[in-house]
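quick one before i forget lol
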Amino acid sequence: MQNRITELFKIKYPIVQAGMIWCSGWELASAVSNAGGLGIIGSGSMYPQVLDEHLRKCKEATDKPFAVNLPMLYPDIDKHVETIIRHQVPIVFTSAGNPKTWTKKLQENGITVVHVVSSVKFALKAQEAGVDAVVAEGFEAGGHNGRDETTTFCLIPMVAREIKIPLIAAGGIGTGRGMLAAMNLGADGVQIGSRFVASHESSAHDKFKQMVLDSGEGDTLLTLKELTPVRLLKNPFFDQVMAAYGRDASTEELHELLGRGRAKRGMFEGDLEEGELEIGQVSGMIDEIKPAAAIIGEIINEFHTARNEQDKFQF
């Protein structure tokens, strides 16, 4: 299965594991890379010394390409960049900021740069900044999201029509059929997050993983747009957010309610009452925790089955 993404990243399958905070450490990244995809370490929840440790362990666990997700709002981003360059990380996914800021420096050090966007406008800006590829992420995605609420299957063909660099689809994709649909719409590959949360190698807390398995249609909602849009599982903290909106809380009140460390409390420490539980809409389709390699194998097998079925259609 060779195309622009597999050639760019030097991987077997055009499947990228999203760099999710508190869920994507070296164990998950190396497992995905060893299975033929591209594993990503989510650096947004790591101090510089912690990222250094994860990079060392990931390099020991795999000889395949892997990446680091670099949120550009991170306060010590210059230290993260230094660490990434020192460890000769081959690929970096930047997000939540201006791609012009670090793309040139990373590329000058031999690093392939991919930027995450939520609109055609920002895809074009990323291309202009010189990135090697973009991830176009739709409204269905978990975690931090775009404000326009453009769904993945509307966003992908619009972006594909406008850019020339490789395109990775994200948001609401967790199966082989979803992967085939995204690629039929113009994507060169897919980025998958929520499905890998429910993997053995994910660093998410077991209680959070189980809540993902128990979730169904309508159990997530995109909220907190006044701060940074985030898709959350409904829990008592989510109810507090909705109550705040009900009394027309100010942005300052919402910021105070969110506080610090909510995501860590929920996803990493397993506080299902007061924690922030970030997950995508596709969580309603996830009902089993599996090894990352088994997840990739399942997706690829379903992709080929669906493509063979598609080829049988005669009109």
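fyi Residues 4-203+287-311 form a domain with the TIM Barrel fold (CATH 3.20.20.70).
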